[in-house]
């Protein structure tokens, strides 16, 4: 079963969920703000994704900007970045789709189509 971390006020998340529903794809919905992934899970998702760690950060979010992370992240160790991501679900890029052996961050319809259809 797919897991989708979303935030209900996020328009991109709503688009992604509509896409899944329109394609009759079943998923478990997880509120990324209330039930965000812990550090262990984030490390597993990162390893499965093949993506750079920066792609797991919600770079357009308010917490990212308030913390000045665009300047701080390059100086931070990987361990510090994981700890930071695990501290606040609003720092994590959403939606985050977790499937059998893959992870997608953000909603790019062509990427989702390639993995799920």
Summarize this entry quickly:
Helix content is 43%, strand content 15%. It contains six helices and four strands.
Which features does this protein show?
alpha+beta, 117 residues
List the SSEs and their pairings.
Layout: E1 2-6, H1 11-22, E2 27-31, H2 39-49, H3 62-66, H4 69-72, H5 78-87, E3 96-99, E4 102-105, H6 109-116
Parallel strand pairs: 1-2
Antiparallel strand pairs: 1-3, 3-4
Overview of the molecule:
By secondary structure, this protein is α+β, with helices and mostly antiparallel strands. It has six helices and four strands; from the N terminus they run E-H-E-H-H-H-H-E-E-H. The chain has a four-stranded mixed sheet with strand order 2-1-3-4. The mean pLDDT is 97.
Strand content: 15-25%
What is the count of helical runs? 6
**Helix-strand sequence:** EHEHHHHEEH
Widest sheet, order of strands: 2-1-3-4
Main sheet characteristics: 4 strands, mixed
Low-confidence regions: none
Give the structural class: alpha+beta
Q: Helicity, in percent?
A: 40-55%
Shape: globular
* Rg estimate, integer Å: 14 Å
Number of strands: 4
